[in-house]
Amino acid sequence: MEQKWTNELAVAQVRIARPTDQLKEIERFYCEGVGLKKIGSFTGHRGYDGIMIGLPNANYHLEFTEHVEGSPCPAPSKDNLLVLYIPNVETIHRIVKRLSLMGYPEVEPENLYWAEKGITIEDPDGWRLVLMNTEGI
Fold this sequence. Notes:
Structural class: alpha/beta
Shape: globular
Number of domains: 2
Order of helices and strands: EHEEEEHEHEE
Helix content: 10-25%
Largest sheet: 4 strands, mixed
Number of helices: 3
CATH class of the largest domain: Alpha Beta
Strand order of the largest sheet: 1-4-3-2
Low-confidence stretches: none
Mean pLDDT: 93
Radius of gyration: 16 Å
């Protein structure tokens, strides 16, 4: 059963955004490696280039931006995570193999909970992605 936002908080879209200094490599990691889709992009907007990457539903997606003067963005900790819940373990193995061949090996998670049913990989900026083999919440 599909749940809807309440009238008090009628959100039309959710975007999680962060800067990067390596937009092309981020796009390669998340699109070619993970398998997400590029759903939009822009160039030269007040000095910024950017891409939007998501799942089939564009109502929630990731945005990565790069500024012409640089966009330093060190990951704040090893426990800041993007978690994708993927019920099919074979899908996870295919993604992990692709990313490994691209030079992104599995890393040990800060919180060992994520190692129980998941695989953690750092993206080009050092931010961590967990491919979790469960149905989610």
